[in-house]
């Protein structure tokens, strides 16, 4: 069963449009959602949750149309804490155990302890990183099968970020859970993700297995006067500087064989994202 499936999802605003977004997430996997600010990541997540209503397309969660019942199996963390600053973690437990049928106070307070969060202190006194950890604890505490995370590790120190990433990997290990992780921190995805989805200007520009991306994609490099050798049909994105150019190719071995005068190195997620944003010069 697919944890999540989007088909042709569109949403138009006066100054932005999400166009024909299609990707799916299998249970037992973590998918990284990457894009610049304004690329459409948050609109995509809000469309899944139902706080934004798409103009076209379909969304299925755990094989079903989204409704109040299936949303019980979805945990959500936005880039800003959505809980009132006047509440404490203890207050949150009292409220959320009446909202979610799967809520576990033991799990929630256990996560608060793991993340070193005071349970009787008002949320307004928390740092941004503490608020993010509290949001993650609340999302995990009702035992969802699908987690939607929008920049969840922003504001966290490296140790806390590592703890969260470890918890996410453990979350999907039984093959019955899945994560959609929107982040600017591509090193998190190098470590954690199984699949990478990249959005640019409201459009999907890449949907690829991370292993394929790291094993097969390559970055061609050369001097400006060597750019004329390059067939643009062989590349997905290009950036030209005063002294060199870089080009993203989907088949590193073939590119290295075809352009022996150029350097061809392995690509990482950040390079793929940056070069796709560069587009292709014709």
Give the number of DSSP strands. 13
Q: Taking strands numbered 1, 2, ... along the chain, how are they ordered across the largest sheet?
A: 5-6-7-3-8-9
Could you tell me the radius of gyration in angstroms?
Answer: 21 Å
Strand content: 25-35%
The portion of residues assigned to helices is 25-40%
Give the biggest beta sheet: 6 strands, mixed
Q: What is the terminal-to-terminal distance?
A: 42 Å
Low-confidence runs of at least 5 consecutive residues: none
Order of helices and strands: EEEHEEHHHEHEHEEHEEEHEH
Shape: elongated
Structural class: alpha/beta
- The overall pLDDT average reads 93
TL;DR?
This protein is of the alpha/beta class. The protein is built from 9 helices and 13 strands.
Notes on the protein architecture:
The chain has helices spanning 41-49, 89-96, 105-114, 128-140, 158-172, 186-192, 210-216, 252-258, 269-278, and strands at residues 2-13, 16-26, 30-34, 56-61, 74-77, 146-150, 178-182, 195-200, 203-209, 218-222, 237-240, 245-249, 263-266. The relative contact order is 0.15. The chain is built from nine helices and 13 strands. It is elongated. Helix 3 (105-114) runs antiparallel to helix 4. Strands 5-6-7-3-8-9 form a six-stranded mixed β-sheet, sandwiched between helices. Strands 11-12-10-13 form a four-stranded antiparallel β-sheet, sandwiched between helices. A three-stranded antiparallel β-sheet has the order 2-1-4, with helices on one face. With 282 residues, it is an alpha/beta fold. The model has no long low-confidence stretch (mean pLDDT 93). Helix 5 links the parallel strand 6 (146-150) and strand 7 (178-182).
């Amino acid at each position: 069963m697919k944890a999540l499936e989007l088909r042709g999802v569109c949403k138009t605003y006066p100054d932005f449009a999400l166009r024909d977004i299609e990707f799916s997430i299998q249970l037992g996997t973590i998918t990284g959602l990457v894009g610049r600010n304004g690329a459409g990541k948050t609109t995509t997540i809000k469309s899944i949750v139902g706080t934004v209503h798409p103009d076209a397309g379909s969304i299925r969660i755990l094989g079903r149309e989204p409704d109040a019942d299936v949303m019980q199996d979805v945990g959500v963390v936005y880039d800003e804490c959505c809980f009132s600053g006047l509440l404490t973690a203890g207050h949150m437990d009292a409220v959320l155990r009446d909202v979610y049928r799967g809520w576990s106070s033991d799990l929630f307070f256990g996560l608060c302890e793991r993340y070193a969060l005071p349970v009787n202190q008002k949320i307004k006194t928390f740092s941004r990183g503490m608020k993010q950890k509290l949001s993650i604890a609340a999302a995990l505490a009702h035992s969802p099968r699908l987690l939607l995370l929008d920049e969840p590790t922003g504001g966290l120190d490296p140790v806390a970020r590592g703890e969260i990433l470890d918890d996410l990997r453990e979350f999907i290990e039984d093959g019955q859970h899945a994560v959609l992780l929107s982040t600017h921190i591509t090193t998190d995805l190098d470590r954690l993700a199984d699949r990478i989805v990249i959005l640019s200007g409201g459009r999907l520009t890449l949907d690829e297995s991370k292993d394929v991306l790291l094993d097969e994609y390559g970055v061609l490099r050369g001097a400006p006067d060597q750019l004329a050798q390059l067939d643009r049909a062989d590349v997905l994105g290009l950036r030209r500087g005063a002294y060199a150019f870089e080009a993203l190719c989907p088949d590193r071995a073939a590119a290295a064989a075809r352009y022996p005068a150029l350097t061809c190195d392995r690509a990482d997620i950040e390079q793929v994202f940056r070069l796709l944003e560069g587009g292709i010069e014709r």
